[in-house]
């Protein structure tokens, strides 16, 4: 089980490293665009800000050649830490198979169907990344449950990394549905310890010493 930060912000990465329970980072082109015009240089800075654990880098270009070039350049920055994150399209799945043959770890993102999860398994991807909240908003079904059932049937080494998680209850629900790992924005990660009864108990403890 791993909890990851879903952000390309250096400030978020630094803050997440201090929380004590965050094990890595996921990024995507939209998150990168908020922070930089030079995504590969920014990835190098993220690796310095968050010094341990995997960082998923998704190429910002969409042609096979551009995705291939960016994925290989990103992986070369830290081969033991960078995971090439590719959309679950036919072209990108073919690229994932090629990258895996060359020793580059990959993940498939925006995975909505068991069939896509099957191809992630067949190409040796580390993760399939379903978008949980987006799937719910578009009535796309129980994406985590379906993919978890398939991967369990295959006795697969591919793990489910649930993304598009907007609340602490969604994080927990994704895990109960079968997700091995989760990724969420910093504000969601910070909300995980919050509970009104805990806060009430702390106030009561303090009151005994006032």
Structure, described:
With 210 residues, the protein is of the alpha/beta class. It has a single domain, classed as Alpha-Beta Barrel (TIM Barrel), CATH 3.20.20.70. It has helices at 10-19, 29-35, 39-49, 64-77, 90-101, 114-122, 132-137, 143-153, 168-176, 186-191, 196-207; strands spanning 2-6, 22-26, 55-57, 82-87, 106-109, 127-129, 159-162, 181-184. Helix 5 links the parallel strand 4 (82-87) and strand 5 (106-109). The longest helix is centred in the middle third of the chain and has 14 residues, at 64-77.
Features:
210 residues, alpha/beta, 8 strands, 51% helix
Write the layout of secondary structure elements.
Blueprint: E1 2-6, H1 10-19, E2 22-26, H2 29-35, H3 39-49, E3 55-57, H4 64-77, E4 82-87, H5 90-101, E5 106-109, H6 114-122, E6 127-129, H7 132-137, H8 143-153, E7 159-162, H9 168-176, E8 181-184, H10 186-191, H11 196-207
Parallel strand pairs: 1-2, 1-8, 2-3, 3-4, 4-5, 5-6, 6-7, 7-8
Ends distance: 40 Å
Per CATH, what is the topology?
A: TIM Barrel
Summarize the helix and strand pattern as letters: EHEHHEHEHEHEHHEHEHH
Count of the separate structural domains: 1
Oligomer: single chain
Q: Tell me the number of strands.
A: 8
CATH architecture: Alpha-Beta Barrel
Q: What is the beta-strand fraction? A: 15-25%
Gyration radius, in Å: 18 Å
Strand order of the largest sheet: 1-2-3-4-5-6-7-8
């Amino acid at each position: 089980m791993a909890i990851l930060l879903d952000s390309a912000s250096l400030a978020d990465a630094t803050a997440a490293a201090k929380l004590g329970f965050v094990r890595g980072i996921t990024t995507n082109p939209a998150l990168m665009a908020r922070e930089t015009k030079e995504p590969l240089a920014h990835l190098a800075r993220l690796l310095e800000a968050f010094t341990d654990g995997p960082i998923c880098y998704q190429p910002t270009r969409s042609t096979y050649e551009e995705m291939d070039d960016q994925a290989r350049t990103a992986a070369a920055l830290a081969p033991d830490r960078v995971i090439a994150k590719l959309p679950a399209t036919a072209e990108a799945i073919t690229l994932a198979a090629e990258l895996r043959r060359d020793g580059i770890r990959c993940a498939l993102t925006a995975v909505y169907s068991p069939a896509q999860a099957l191809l992630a398994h067949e190409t040796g991807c580390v993760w399939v990344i379903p978008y949980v909240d987006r799937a719910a908003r578009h009535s796309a079904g129980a994406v985590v449950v379906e993919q978890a059932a398939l991967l369990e049937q295959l006795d697969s080494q591919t793990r489910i990394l649930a993304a598009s998680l907007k609340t602490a209850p969604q994080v927990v629900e994704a895990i109960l549905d079968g997700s091995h790992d989760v990724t969420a924005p910093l504000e969601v990660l910070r909300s995980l310890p919050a509970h009104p009864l805990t806060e009430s108990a702390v106030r009561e403890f303090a009151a005994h010493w006032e």
